[in-house]
Amino acid sequence: MKKLLLATTAIMLAGMANAEEIKMGISLGFTGPLESMSPAMASGAELAMKEVSDSGMLLDGSTVVPVRSDSTCVDAAAATAGVEKLITSDKVKGIMGGMCSGETTASLQNVAMPNGMVMISPSATSPALSDLPDDGLFFRTSPSDARQGVVMTEILMEHDIKSVALTYTNNDYGKGLADSFAAAFEAAGGSVTINAAHDDGKADYSAEVGALASAGGDALVIAGYVDQGGAGVLRGALDSGAFETFVFPDGMVGQALEDNFAAELEGSFGQMPSSEGEGKDKFVALATEAGFDGTSVYASEAYDAAALMLLAMQAAGSSDPQVYKGKIMDIANAPGEPILPGELGKALELIKAGTDIDYQGASSVEFIGNGESSGTFREIEIKDGKIETVQYR
């Protein structure tokens, strides 16, 4: 018996010796034009990290510690400096982020790639990221805006809207989405009367609203931020009566839209990357139990981004980003046993046993070429002062 106890103790100590404290970065715009969305996104990622940590199954009992960094969403220099600190000072093993397309591109090219760091963004949707050389280090759990432009066109045509004025926030996200949408809308027979940028951070948007009103259209498409310039343009357009119908892509679909404008937007509509089904339902229930809103924009995609990196570590048998990066596509796609939120401990056990998994997660993850998410979209409409779901596409 004594020899058996000694042997068991030795095995336990050997396992503990291989365990490590794995720090994981979270780079989001905790300040800036999407600051109202960031808390739930961070909570989503941290929920996955806690679930994995609590299971005790990751790499011989390793624990996971989140480290937050404020990307500001729009300041590439600040985002890059934050990511550099995460990598060089905090010694993270992966980064859930960035949040907005421009700062994500800068952080990836200037810091993550030179340091061999994996980044999985839940929300950087610029089509330019699709073809960016990334050495297999970059993935995203939300679909490209090339797809959103097509979906938005389909919704507009179903509403029998054939002409629109279009304004976009003057950055990579806004321009990429505006160009993708304009191309899709015009190819479908629609007319874009004006395609004009607006800058964030201004006190007055009357000049921009005046130009949009002069151009006219059946609706105004605002490819902006609900906490920044997009809100300013919307307020100006409402106050002047320039448009009656508004179309909102993902950057405008948030709680702030409902809180500040919804009572004035009856019948307006839009879309955002989101999913439905058992995975999303399970995530929302877990989020509610954890004290945050799981229906918030990109919260589910953030959970999935964090989960994928940790599961890939298990599959690779290493927390080294240069080693586990090659396992992310395998973990995310069929064949394998489907894995949903709340099942990360089970997934880690299956991987350790040599069983293939198909991580579907909270947002129905399926990667196509270059770490792209195929994605689904939630169509919304403003009804009785509330953002209501119409359908999923």
Summarize the structure in short:
With 393 residues, this protein is α/β, with parallel strands linked by helices. It has helices at 2-18, 38-55, 76-88, 101-112, 145-158, 172-187, 206-215, 229-240, 255-260, 278-290, 299-316, 321-324, 328-332, 344-352, and strands at 21-28, 63-70, 95-97, 119-121, 138-140, 163-169, 191-198, 219-223, 246-248, 269-273, 337-339, 357-359, 367-368, 372-373, 377-383, 386-392.
Which key phrases capture this entry?
393 residues, Rossmann fold, disordered N terminus, 5-stranded parallel β-sheet, alpha/beta, single chain, 14 helices, 7-stranded mixed β-sheet, 2 domains
Question: What does this entry look like structurally?
Answer:
With 393 residues, the protein is of the alpha/beta class. The protein is built from 14 helices and 16 strands. The chain is globular, with a radius of gyration of 22 Å. Helix 3 (76-88) crosses helix 4. Strands 7-6-8-9-10-15-16 form a seven-stranded mixed sheet, with helices on both faces. Strands 2-1-3-4-5 form a five-stranded parallel sheet, sandwiched between helices. The relative contact order is 0.14. The protein has two domains: 2-144 and 277-373, Rossmann fold (3-Layer(aba) Sandwich); 145-272 and 377-392, Rossmann fold (3-Layer(aba) Sandwich), CATH 3.40.50.
